[in-house]
Design brief:
Keywords: Stress response. The chain has about 140 residues and is α+β, with helices and mostly antiparallel strands. It has two helices and seven strands. It has a four-stranded antiparallel beta sheet with strand order 1-2-7-6, with no helix packed on it. Strands 3-4-5 form a three-stranded antiparallel beta sheet.
Amino acid sequence: MRTIDLSPLYRSFIGSDHLASLVDAATRAEKQSAYPPYNIELIGDDKYRITMAVAGFSKDDVSIEVQENSLTIMGSKEAKKTEQKFLHKGISERNFERKFQLGDHVKVLAADMEHGLLHIDLERVIPEAKKPRKIEIGSQLIENK
């Protein structure tokens, strides 16, 4: 596995610690298991959908939490105490935790579960103050007092 030395960034750029933490979070995310499988879909200009295969889990077994720019999805089931005998067991019902690093101004709009798929809708909502605006030549700056 390759590692990236970001120490030159710390010496050269002020505020690069945020960039370094994003890169570190991305490399940690790569080390996660592939369970459960998921898709990230672009459904509009600033709209996204995460679809996660959670076969065997109910709405009560899955929790979704957003904290700052991190989306965490956890699935937890109590172990069944039945004497089932499987000839083949391909549907995994093990507990999981999957984290996604969200970009700035990305908000979680809704979550829904249908046919063993968990759908989470997200949207990037850029505040008016951050949107580009046209400045007319010869205009004066008006300050809020």
